[in-house]
Amino acid sequence: MQSSAAFASWISAMPKAELHVHLDGTLRPSRLLDRAAKHGFDIPYRSVEDVTDAYAFENLQSFLDLYYMGTSVIRDEEDFYLLMLDYLSACRDQHITHTEIMIEPQSYLPSGVSLATMMSGFKQAMAEAQAGWGQSVLLILSLLRHLPERDGLEVLEQAHRACPDGFVAIGLASSELGHPPADFTELYARARSLGYRATAHAGEEGPAGFVADSLDLLGVERIDHGVRSAEDPALLARLSREGIPLTVCPLSNVKLKVFDSMANHNLLQLLAAGVRVTVNSDDPTYFGGFLNENFIALHEHLRLTAEQAARINRHAFEASFLPAPARAEKLAELDRYLLAHARP
Ligand code: ADE
Ligand code: ZN
User: Fold this and answer.
1) Whether this model's pTM surpasses 0.70
2) Ligand 1, residues 23, 26, 64, 142: which to mutate, most atoms within 8 A of Cβ?
3) Considering Cα of 161, then 163, then 165, then 166, what sign does the dihedral take?
């Protein structure tokens, strides 16, 4: 077998963890069309090709405009159930045995959709995936930074009241430029006081200083993206020394022009600096690939080795918000796979 084909089948069958995926970023074009038809919504697309043709982005904001339009067709419990089930079925097919999914209620609440409706659909799909193929899932309450901190605080309180065990952590997503971590200190302090773990997008389009501020002002345990940390050698050394995980999303970074090509992505540089890099898909149906496709692109364009891929995947299980016994079980499963399958 050719080395690329051997790598692809080896990484595809490996039990993997994903720590950075937005559920709304897993909406399939066919699902977008069938939900729009169901609700009688007029959208500017007639076919799957029309939808995928629109997926050419200039930057983060041009993507977000389309991404939030996609959420407008998801309205009732069945829609939320199918959205979650579609992604968890992809996890089964991709051997993503554990996933931590960002849920963004602020995209739905203004249209009168309740948190109870969302969670009821999600829970049904999660229970089926758990019973059907042992899927492990945690949910992250991802708040939108283009909205005021007060809005995020209200959603946090509402989520905590309505489903106290629903979310393991909070996150911060959406437009990074103009919305610095310093604007969300109260939100994070409150979430941490309620017992939530914490992560935040930083250093995707925003500067390396946003990564340091997310650590220092928000108390996050991991950083979503963080690739621009490489611009500050002292920060890079700190991330390495403190073992801060970065949830890097290679295909996303190329699609949103954070890097001009995969060959110029800095993931190997981060890894070589000793940073706990993980690989993730971010918004897989918008960016041309789920987790396996991200690993395969790194192998093809950056010569990511099997040893590096295994190390990255180990980081992901280690950096997960799973309780220690479940994390140890997942790591043991990975070790069994690595022992039984020779590295390509
Ligand atoms: N929401 C969905 N994808 C995102 C990304 N790549 N950056 C910020 N917010 C997002
Ligand atoms: Zn993201």
Assistant:
1) yes
2) 64
3) negative
